[in-house]
């Protein structure tokens, strides 16, 4: 049976929507007779008010705040899907806030979420964050907090991350095993442990295969598509000899691919490319982009489970926090098929 | 000057983070002497509590709820950026909720946002929504509501949309002017006015150029990358003669491109392709995808402005609602360069 709406009542009485709405809300501007007519018709048609239930009874809101840098990065939106799938099963709703990689916006977001009475916060913090004060405050107020991907290990909040060191190692080892020898690594200037770990993995893989580290091949900047383009321009204009590029994440890799193509440098024959994060566009571009998958959906699910365990335990910060580290997966596509092709 | 944190106090006193945090919150488990030591050290170091301000004073929360199908569709995330940019300038924060194109999740989202005391709701509703009850209720409660992209015109809430009819017309006319004659249109089964308008634009453009409508060239289904692939398979396996495809949105167009490529059908020489929505991946794929841009950032800004005007006026639903219709823009890339190339 179709649900009876305010519009149905308005139609039946040949009056406007807002008259019916106001009559139902006992608005003073509406005459008594109209109110009665509306009431009668509403009863006759079987109209029921209050679809929007008020769950203000308990102290718990059953709402969890999730704070991420940006939801148009598929890494984050995919983790959020994972978090939502578990949380919804357990009767929780998710409210989202984007920091746009700004700790100032993030502070505002935490304030907003707490004022919205969320039961707790799950976050991957902004890249420019330099101190942990606001997260210390959340903990000191005994509000549940869980980190994913980017965690502050000095705080005793639980976290789910991937093994970024291993990811960096795998990406580099894959390029070496595909036959590349002069491997560039593009990394971040800003101080985030996930990127430092990927760099460490790169260095150790070179070492393991007896390839000397060449400082000219390590480029630092701020991750973006344009930065990837700039790196290729710099490498070629300085005449630096290289045959592969491993970038800290996929958007930078995309810039690398576009610039290599625009300079008629063939991928993967002349230069192999691998990114990190398995963004959605990687399988759609030509050549398709090899990358490291971070098991985003699983990360979201594990994060939600960890958070729910915390909620169940009640006292959130008494014990040593659980730290889950997931294994990265190597995704081989066309861009790193080796120079022999 | 670096902000003093709980960790600094803990370090100074050589006690744990959680002891300091609990001492600062006057936790009964912490001894009086520890509490005093913490308090003294906090004062000495210049520690200030309460970074998280409580804005519970006024009835207004200065938080706006934005409810969209999915933020990993760049159309929606880009509109949301536009909304945020204006709202932040005016001191409002945005909380986001994803319906995943399910009206049931959307109902839950509205409940969640209202329980979180948002000052109002901005939305583009779920594709499977069949009645307007919940939005009628928002209006009848006199809570500000503004639609973007997908609007319910029978309700007196304001809206910002693009001229989808014009977009459909422009896309089709562009294919005709590029030299294509047997133009397929892939559209939606589900009943959403934006898609019907795009179809109408397609039909009228054919008419305007004296191209007879061929029902075999109009395919209906549920938008997705795989649906795009299936359409190409169906067209080719049924031996239907076509030289261009205009899809209702870009993900479907991406499926079309992938399937055409896998069947060695050359784009744009044998088949031209144009999508709709200007998703981020469109410029990254090969061939790059022609599309219709929906001025998403402007749409977000206009939506925010409309909403702020509503807030200022105070009584939200007394007058006829403002309806803004933006012009779509044609984006020509490689996929529709014409059969002559």
UniProtKB/TrEMBL annotation, chains A, B:
The keyword DNA repair does not apply. Gene3D superfamilies: 3.40.50.2300, lambda repressor-like DNA-binding domains. The keyword Iron does not apply. Keywords: DNA-binding, Transcription, Transcription regulation. It comes from Olivibacter jilunii. Residues 4-58 form the HTH lacI-type domain. Signal peptide: none annotated. One of its GO terms (molecular function) is DNA binding. This is LacI family DNA-binding transcriptional regulator. Transmembrane segments: none annotated.
